[in-house]
Amino acid sequence: MLVLEPQHVHMHQHAGDKAEALQCLINILVEDQLVTAEYLSGLEAREKQSATYLGQGIAIPHGTPQSREFILNTGVRLAHFPDGVVWDGENVIYLAVVIAAKSDEHLQVLQILTRALSKDVHELVKSATTAEQIIEILQAQPQSLVLHENLIQTDTQVDDIEDFFWNASKLLKQQKLVEPGFISQLNPKNTIQIQDDLWSISGSGYVKQPAVSIVKANQPLAFQGSTIKTLICIAENEQLDTQQFNRLMDVLFQPQVQQQLDDEQSSNQIAKLVGAETIPDWPSRNILLANAHGLHARPATQLVNLTKTFSGDLQVSVDGGSFVSAKSLTKLLSLGCQRGQRLTFIAEPDTDAILALDQIVEAVRDGLGEEVEPIEENLFLNSVLDQDNSAETEQYEITHCGIAASSGLAFGPAHVIKPKKFNYDRYAGSLKEEKEKLEIAIRTVKNTIHQYISKSASKDIKQIFLAHLEMLDDPDLIQQVHLALNHNLSAAAAWHEHIEKAAKAQEGLKDKLLAERAADLRDIGDKVLAILCNEPEVEEPEQPYILIMHDVGPSDVARLNKDRVAGILTSIGGASAHSAIVARALGIPAVVGAGDAVLNIDSHAVVLINGDTGEFEVNPSPEQIEHAIREREVQRLRREEAEKSAHEPAITTDQHQIEIAANVGKIVDTAKAVQNGAEAIGLLRTELVFMSHNSAPDELAQEKDYRHVLDALEGRPLVVRTLDVGGDKPLPYLPIAAEENPFLGLRGIRLTLRKPTLLRQQLIALLKSADNRPLRIMFPMVGRVEEWRAAKGILDEVLEQYPCENLEVGIMIEVPSAALLTPILAKEVDFFSIGTNDLTQYTMAIDRGHPILSAEADGLHPSILLLIDQTVRAAHANNKWVGICGELAADPKAVPILMGLGVDELSMSISSIPLVKAQVRHLNYAECQKLAHKALLCDSATAVRELAE
Ligand code: PEP
Ligand code: MG
To answer: How many angstroms separate the alpha carbon of residue 837 from the centre of ligand 2?
Structure first.
């Protein structure tokens, strides 16, 4: 980060002309060991291309990209010339800000300077006498408060104050005005009532630029003994322009504002009311900037030269931010636009500016005087989809955001499944009527189920429905309910109470329990009850839909019909929760943790979700849908390309190979994994295999399952994890007493060591199935060396009876204590497999499925990388290998870093294998090592992600 410091300001400099001034600047840079003397040629060449005069008596000399080789360290120095120096024939400068930047850091300096230049500082710059004055002129400008129509959201569904906070922060985050932690700064206790139902809240941490967002609910909400309908959320820092802020407050305290705010429905009307900048309804075009070094002074000058030839007003914004004049060099530079960001140009209607739009887009595409490498999106869309030769693509902002859980774009009608609540009277008048009602309800449900069966193509799903029919025909069930009816109970009460009793009884049957039957019983029970209580059944849409639920459990997802469910959107959950993992395995795009408001989306309203970014949109425009279809096509083609070479090894450009393996939870998926290029199974989640059985599989059933996997692998290694039950993976027939903190309780090896018979049985089944094929057994959730030794002890006993030739034994590294003890453990195990999902959860103390926090639990946090680094070092020092089997292994930003840390194997969901292999083939191992080294020194996951960009 480049900063302007007083000790870097050289006052009282003198130069007869520009050449002398440049020499003077070079002397300063050389003396401070920022550049070698040759950098002068770079400065001169740059001035020849076009003078670096910025305005207000300031120039910003810097070298050409070719002269970067003469830069020793990135830095910026300032020289004050009190007598002035003629810079470009007509303009005289008094201050030169000379930049030596190895990459694009100079854009930051430009942003600082252009903020200063938004006021008239020419005289101040000229007459300054101290370094401190110069810095004050350049930096002490208050940061203007961003108050813009795109920071206002109306008609928002909110259930509590947290929903207000979430929406307000999201608006600020989308415009990159605050960083992700901002929401943590908003405390309900600090809300201030401005007027009746108009409240404000402010937060000062994680603020990039002072700004205000406004959220108006669709109805008032009871809050602190009063009501709240509109929240003003202020993101402030010490540079906040207090005058501007006070003006806003003056408006908000006016008595009539409360009523006006209630009346105005659109964000545009509210923006006008509070004096916020509005988005002009002008014709627009947009394009991605492809210039390698962003919109720096030279291309920006070209752009200004072009826009100035038109008399009408032309404005531009970056990535949906505020618009500035496209005719002002300083305004353009203040955007700090970088390669890959999207510029949106708008033109004043009824002027010649309209004609400018096409020319501008053309000029930006051509690089504004620089040679540019077109951006991939354009390449794809142009070459593949044959889009009318235009490199530009429309930008359609998706406005809501949850957590990206399973990659892909999906849209379709919403199918909202809410937790059901039924109201009924316990007692009824007429026995005959109640019996009739019950009969009709059961018959109706049976008819519907018959329809489902005839429509469903999947055998598995048909079977589920056939089982439902059987339950409804169960004479014992009907007899019991009739008995209750004879005691004057209403049909609804008799039915519900009996179903609930039966479901509970089944749950209590411990390991003999058919737990799924309990869930099924409740499922059909609710269907009948809905009819008895006149609750309209939510119809499953005809075409593939977006399933919206509070949460989707692993078994829910496993039962989904992939052909009907286009995507999943949930209120709670995190990217590494098991429901998300199963969604990924099924290849269904998913966004999770989107807040309870999603349950209020109208059923059948069209919803668009982006499982790569976590964004979703309700009732998207036709253009957004069209864009999604194109984007999906791009993704499809990229995948198709990668699949062609899925069976080739993953070798970097400098010949470093890494093993790419698959995570599976279903036996039948092994063959699919091999087809997709898996070189091994890196994680067989046996608890998921257990879940597919209605009761605990015995030794024989297990042996059959494991044999099936090994057969399908045809000699490739199999890494099996012993049962990892507990946490968010309960096993119905292996009940665990309720725990306050299941993730910190009886889980993984802690549980199976307390049920040694179960562990022994699983180990025997594994060893018997192996037939000397490469089998790797690992124990989950090891936190103490004693646990590993105890588990290994049991395995050694079993091995005496069932010897196995080609066996390796290892542990998962998912608990920080184990990671820290790897130097000891590495001497005893054959390998480590790092479960980054849990390792992140336990290191950062964030529940992996936490609705609000899980997005902050990023496996690329340096603390996790340090633990991985330590594990790899310990393993390699003892000639042992290390794999990664958490979700991080397939994260495109993590892949080069994990490789650079020396990890030997990456194991991931099947669908990611071809893409990760393709990515590895473009990487250079030596570069990955450098990158990993830098990542270990970062202070945040955000910094690591920026590094990996
Ligand atoms: C992990 O924790 O990273 C892991 C792979 O195990 P699971 O996700 O099944 O807990
Ligand atoms: Mg785990």
So the answer is: 6
